[in-house]
Specification:
Number of domains: 3
Strand order of the largest sheet: 3-2-1-7-16-15
Oligomer: single chain
Strand content: 5-15%
Distance between the termini: 17 Å
Radius of gyration: 24 Å
Helix content: 25-40%
């Protein structure tokens, strides 16, 4: 028998185990035993747990969510068409509903799969090698395993990493965890300051308004999609989001016409060719992206030059909005552009380019050998481009505007005003990877990672935050060899691989390679037994 410890039980764990189960022949029962360590219900994990507030919505189109397998052919949209048909028209349904689907797929795997799967509702605190095996230690004991997979997602060793500022309420306690004690710390009529102004901050705003009985109705005399917020009396008096640059996230593009799609398709081929060429010239990649942006701007009659488009990436917003004093006016402009009431902006051009070519970038940049300066410049540009491409869906953006119009929501740059007698909430999400910052300055996010680094079992390259792995998820040691019985999937490997903060199962193939490696071991053991 091969004993496997999965450290983290969220979607990446689920996808890997479903793949392994599908590959394991029907007569393989009893050959593989998997223990899934996660304090939260497996399949969904902490971030997607089914108990979170219903006002927290999916930020990507639900059509990408697919945890189907030989045990159940249902995608998420198939599942909710039966379980919650009233929401089937909604492209951005409650995240709790997604959690129900993921948890149900895990329960089905545990009940009917060929794999023997056990959930251990505890955090792993230490991982040590013992010969060819691993000792996995928790607060209540330890176990010995042949294989270990690090799939810890947004947290390591089962602990949240958001509470980095002692006097602040971690956003997760108000949102995905919704602690009653934390909610009581934000009474009705309070003034609230949120550290951060991205998707997590938006979640906090929704929980403290809609989640406390506030309602939305169409704005009388306004545009057809505009909303008005109706007070419940239980919400804070004022919510102020604070960010370093005061730049809002651009509402997600609502569709790409056939002309723009044909342009994207031609540049997908160029990126694919660049990625497979092995030249290592990152300037060529930027040239491809910039040429694509120019072509899309020209095709959609958006005023732009090569210089202005490049400047938009460097600065994080176009010259059109560089003097914009109110970030919500930029959101309003973008929403109006989506409905044809304004010309599209250069932010929209880059949103189309970055989101449309993202899957090719993931492949082309996987385990890329970066020059340190190129790495630094790419990270800075990616932050700006992701703010343009992966912002809130239009319904969420409309709610934010309604809160602003009601005088309840502001967005300020850090240092513009004092906190005063405000309740402070930390909504800056912990960085992906396993370090607090780029290597070598960044600190390990947990003692588990610190121990693996000290022993040389894992490798983090200079300028990166995540574990270096092979194409099948196998961790690379400090010496550069494969650590055959230790793998990592998802956010712990961010930087060497790109874009793991996603539910798109098709975007990263490492879990398939890992499953095939385990099956090869099963077959090898079976051959030994046969002889």
């Amino acid at each position: 028998m091969i004993r496997i410890a999965m450290i983290g039980g969220g979607p990446k764990c689920l996808f890997a185990l479903l793949e392994l189960n599908d590959l394991l022949a029907g007569d393989g029962a009893g050959l593989v035993q998997v223990d899934v360590y996660d304090p939260y219900p497996p399949g969904a994990g902490r971030v997607w747990n089914a108990g979170q507030p219903r006002e927290l919505r999916l930020n990507v189109n639900s059509r990408i969510i697919d945890a189907s397998s030989s045990l159940c052919a249902q995608t998420f949209n198939d599942y909710r068409a039966r379980q919650a048909p009233e929401s089937s028209h909604d492209a951005f349904p409650p995240r709790a509903l997604v959690g129900e689907y993921l948890s149900e797929q895990f329960r089905l795997l545990a009940r009917q799969g060929t794999l023997a799967v056990t959930h251990r509702a505890m955090a792993v605190e230490q991982l040590e090698r013992h010969g060819e095996q691993w000792q996995v230690a928790t607060s209540t004991g330890s176990g010995i395993y042949d294989e270990v997979v690090l799939a810890t997602g947004h947290g390591l060793a089962g602990t949240g990493r958001e509470a980095l500022h002692g006097d602040m309420i971690p956003a997760a306690e108000l949102t995905v965890e919704q602690s009653a004690q934390a909610m009581r710390k934000v009474p009705a009529g309070a003034e609230v300051q949120i550290r951060g102004a991205a998707l997590t901050a938006y979640d906090v705003a929704m929980v403290l308004t809609e989640g406390r009985g506030g309602r939305w109705e169409p704005m009388a005399g306004g545009s057809p999609d505009a909303l008005k917020y109706l007070l419940s009396g239980d919400e804070p008096r004022l919510i102020t989001m604070v960010s370093r640059h005061g730049i809002p996230m651009t509402p997600k593009p609502q569709g790409i016409d056939s002309t723009a799609q044909r342009i994207l398709d031609s540049y997908k081929l160029q990126l694919r060719q660049w990625g497979s060429s092995g030249t290592g010239e990152i300037r060529q990649m930027w040239r491809i992206l910039l040429d694509c942006a120019i072509d899309i701007a020209d095709a959609t009659q958006i005023a732009a030059s090569e210089e202005s488009l490049a400047r938009t990436v460097r600065k994080g917003r176009s010259d059109q909005f560089s003097t914009q004093s109110n970030p919500f006016e930029q959101i309003r402009y973008s929403l109006d552009a989506h409905h044809g009431r304004n010309p599209h902006s250069q932010e929209w051009v880059w949103a189309v380019v970055w989101s449309g070519l993202y899957s090719e970038l993931v492949v082309a940049l996987a385990r890329f050998q970066w020059d340190p300066q190129d790495r630094k410049e790419f990270n800075a540009a990616a932050v700006n481009l992701e703010r343009m491409a992966f912002g809130p869906p239009a319904p969420t953006a409309q709610k934010l505007l309604a809160l602003h119009e009601a005088g309840m929501l502001r967005h300020e740059r850090a240092g513009q005003g004092g906190a005063g007698e405000t309740i402070r909430i930390d909504a800056v999400t912990a960085p992906a990877g396993v370090l607090s910052g780029p290597c070598p300055q960044g600190e390990p996010a947990s003692e588990l990672i610190r121990g693996l680094l000290r022993a040389g079992h894992i490798k983090i390259r200079p300028g990166e935050r995540g574990l270096l792995t092979d194409t099948d998820g196998t961790c690379i040691t400090a010496e550069g060899s494969r650590n055959e019985s230790l793998a990592a999937l998802g956010r712990p490997t961010e930087d060497p691989t790109l874009g793991h903060d996603t539910l798109n199962r098709a975007l990263h193939p490492e879990y398939r390679g890992w499953s095939q490696r385990i099956i090869a071991q099963v077959n090898a053991r079976n051959r030994k037994v046969a002889y």
